[in-house]
């Protein structure tokens, strides 16, 4: 079904509205650009005003006449998330692409005191989706796509230490945050089905795609040698961001995408056209999904209001 699927296969998106978080670079930018190219109105939700405006200008140069607008959103600050949702200007929301993320950073905390990777990758998007849920429910055929990672396999969540306060290991924390993305999709899909909603919650991952995500942590710590090694790996081993964005675009737009599906590159989950992706069994565990959901509502103060 997905053999050879590429950006040219994206159905017409005219009349549809999409929000893409982290749309200033990497697969987020490519996702926003290709949705706009197919006629969608796209909101580029980015933390940095300068980079967000640069991305908007670049997109309009590459897709003349596109309907694309930068809107500030800092997923590391729940006040910013609430402001974004409260000021959302449109009557419909067809696509919410929870793309933004951080990877393997030194230990830090968000504005609300959460460990940075868990706070940005999971809790920020959990709050954003919940606050925008009324718009999604009012839009026939709406989809929420959460971008996880094949690296979720390195760690299940620790429900007793979600913020890694007992011991912090950057890659384990990253794996836990990406597992949280998949557990969120699993539980969200279950709740939507129980409510009789046609909103689709799905997940995707880019495989190994060359973006600035891999070097953010090493640059923060001034580890020049490690940064050069990662950059070399990006040049030699990774697929380009254009290819890495395809699983997200497929999950967002292709006909027949099922709730709680996980789409990634078809060749060993590493590169290639979008295909169903393997996932760890713990990402489909009902009890874990429900416990993470309850904890996320308590931590963010955002309660989902389904019919």
Automatic annotation (TrEMBL):
Organism of provenance = Streptomyces beijiangensis
Query: Which GO molecular function annotation, any one, does this entry have?
Result: oxidoreductase activity
Record's protein name:
SDR family NAD(P)-dependent oxidoreductase
Reading the lineage from the top rank, the first entry is Bacteria
According to the entry, what is the taxonomic lineage of the organism? Answer: Bacteria, Bacillati, Actinomycetota, Actinomycetes, Kitasatosporales
Is this entry keyworded Oxidoreductase?
yes
Cross-referenced PANTHER family, in alphabetical order?
PHOSPHATIDYLINOSITOL-GLYCAN BIOSYNTHESIS CLASS F PROTEIN, PHOSPHATIDYLINOSITOL-GLYCAN BIOSYNTHESIS CLASS F PROTEIN-RELATED
Matching InterPro entries, A to Z?
Answer: NAD(P)-bd_dom_sf (IPR036291), SDR_fam (IPR002347)
Q: Which family does it belong to?
A: Belongs to the short-chain dehydrogenases/reductases (SDR) family.
Q: Which UniProt keywords apply?
A: Oxidoreductase
């Amino acid at each position: 079904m997905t053999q050879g699927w590429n950006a040219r296969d994206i159905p017409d998106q005219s009349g549809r509205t999409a929000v893409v978080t982290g749309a200033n670079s990497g697969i987020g930018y490519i996702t926003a650009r290709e949705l706009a190219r197919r006629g969608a109105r796209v909101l580029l939700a980015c933390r940095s005003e300068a980079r967000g405006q640069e991305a908007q200008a670049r997109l309009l140069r590459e897709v003349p006449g596109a309907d694309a607008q930068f809107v500030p959103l800092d997923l590391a600050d729940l006040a910013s998330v609430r402001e974004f949702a409260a000021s959302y200007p449109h009557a419909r929301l067809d696509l919410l692409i929870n793309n933004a993320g951080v990877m393997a950073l030194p230990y830090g905390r968000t504005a609300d005191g959460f460990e940075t990777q868990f706070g940005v990758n999971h809790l920020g998007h959990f709050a954003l989706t919940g606050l925008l849920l009324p718009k999604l429910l009012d839009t026939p055929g709406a989809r929420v796509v959460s971008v996880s990672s094949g690296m979720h396999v390195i760690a299940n969540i620790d429900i007793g230490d979600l913020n890694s306060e007992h011991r912090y290991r950057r890659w384990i924390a990253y794996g836990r945050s990406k597992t949280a993305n998949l557990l969120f999709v699993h539980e969200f899909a279950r709740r939507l089905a129980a409510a009789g909603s046609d909103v689709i919650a799905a997940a995707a991952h880019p495989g190994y795609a060359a973006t600035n995500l891999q070097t953010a942590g090493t640059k923060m710590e001034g580890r020049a040698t490690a940064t050069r090694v990662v950059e070399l790996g990006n040049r030699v081993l990774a697929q380009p961001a254009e290819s890495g964005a395809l699983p997200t675009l497929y999950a967002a737009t292709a006909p027949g995408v099922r709730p709680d599906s996980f789409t990634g590159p078809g060749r060993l989950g590493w590169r290639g056209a979008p295909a169903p992706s393997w996932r760890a069994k713990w990402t489909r565990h009902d009890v874990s999904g429900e416990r993470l959901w309850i904890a996320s509502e308590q931590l963010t103060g955002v309660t989902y209001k389904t019919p």
